[in-house]
Amino acid sequence: MEQSSFAITPLRDIYTVSRLNREAKAVLEGGFPPIWIEGELSNLSRPASGHVYFSLKDAQAQVRCAFFRQHQRLRGLALKDGLHVLARARVSLYEGRGDYQLIVEYLEEAGEGALRRAFDALKQRLLQEGLFDVAHKKPLPRLPRRLGVITSPSGAVLHDILTTLRRRFPGIAVLVYPVPVQGEGAAEKIAGAIRLAGRRGDCDALILARGGGSLEDLWAFNEESVARAIYACPVPIVSGVGHETDFTIADMVADARAPTPTAAAEMLSPDRQEWLAQFTRLGTRLTTAMQGRLRSRQQHLDWLGARLVHPRNRIVLLQQSLQSLAQRLYLSQTASQRQARSELQALMARLHQHSPRPRIQALMLNHGHLYSRLVTGMKRRRELAESRLQQLMQSLHTLSPLATLERGYAIVQRPETGAVVTDAGKVRPGERVRARLARGRLDCLVEKTRED
User: Which Gene Ontology biological process is one annotated for this entry (predicted)?
Assistant: First the structure.
């Protein structure tokens, strides 16, 4: 069979330019993850749209880059030709012209970028070792007696710290550990000062301080030696390095981080006014509590005093009881008298109905006569008794030794015993005797005795 002169060929997959560029773009973007790339800026262009276009080159090659406006967070970085930068970018292709290019998402100066990568690497390693663990951080003293300050002695930071401490609580002593805070060898000297303060242990807390600056200026506080010295220090450390937006490795290892050196001083120094106000409140509470305690004790003492009855108080109570009973008796008697008087009046009324007036009058006359005789007899009896009493008194006076004394006699007694001396032979010369006279006594010394 004769074959056709036209060969049967399969259908061709014919690309358009747009399809080719689109699929090439997909291959490039899917084959490369976001990358970090370092190079020198050239052919910098800033159109009115706000986007930035440039080439990134090294000694052998270059690549076009697009830095769109929404990703431009340069933090003060001025882009210019010849600037050495580190960029984070995605590999892509511009379909309109088929140009291979990089879409830049982040850009920084190359030197700081290297430091940033070293910072991140050290941060990750120390984080895994547990140097940032909260459990290891020591509590700050509430009322420190002495603070150590590790900083440059010539900077404004030390003056700000001392001014803050003097304003808030001037009673806190300050010990300064002077160190360089940047430059070659600064990290080792800072670490040495931290270790020295830890060995001495004469401070209640330490302030590690420095003013603000670039990442390179603050690099001494990102060194591993400083971080490990802070971690091993037995004294609590507050890091006040840089400004509020600056973060260092020292901030993460320290027991507390302050946004500024002044804030570090405020963090470790109590507010004098707050303490004085607290003392005032505590004094008021103590006074109130003591007054309440004293009132309670006084009440308890009064209760005990009421239970302990003194004999004098007992007598007073009995007197009061007696007065009460006497009052009750008086009232009872008064009531009885009133009742008896009432009954008497009733009886008198009844008696008046049957009045024995004549008999009573006769009896009254007889009563008057008898009363007169009784008075006369009593008067006579009293006169006789008085006369008899006078006679007896006269007789008694006559026989009384006092009458004898009135006649000039004396009674001699021994002063020791009061015994009456009746015999001169019983008294020796030199002895003392007492002579009782009618009025008064004489103490006598016997010079000589005579016997009749």
Answer: DNA catabolic process
Residue 303 is predicted with a pLDDT of 79
Token pair belonging to 221: 């506080």
Do 112 and 150 reside in the same domain of the chain? no
Residue with tokens 């399809």: 19
Report d(CA 66, CA 102) in Å as an integer: 6
More confident residue, 276 or 187: 187
Name the residue range of residue 155's domain. 144-273
Retrieve residue 17's tokens: 């330019």
Find out whether 376 and 368 touch, Cβ atoms under 8 Å. Answer: no
**In whole angstroms, what is the distance from residue 223 CA to residue 241 CA?**
13
Q: CA 111, 117, 122 angle in degrees (round to 5)?
A: 130
Task: Using a cut of 0.85, tell me whether the model's pTM lies above it.
Answer: no
Same domain as 259, residue 159: yes
What is the tens place of the pLDDT at every residue in 308-324?
Answer: 666 777 788 888 888 88
Residue 8 has pLDDT above 70, yes or no: no
Take residue 265 and report the two structure tokens written for it: 């001083």
Is 5 in contact with 56 (CB distance < 8 Å)?
no
- Identify whether the C-beta of residue 21 lies closer than 8 Å to the C-beta of residue 98: yes
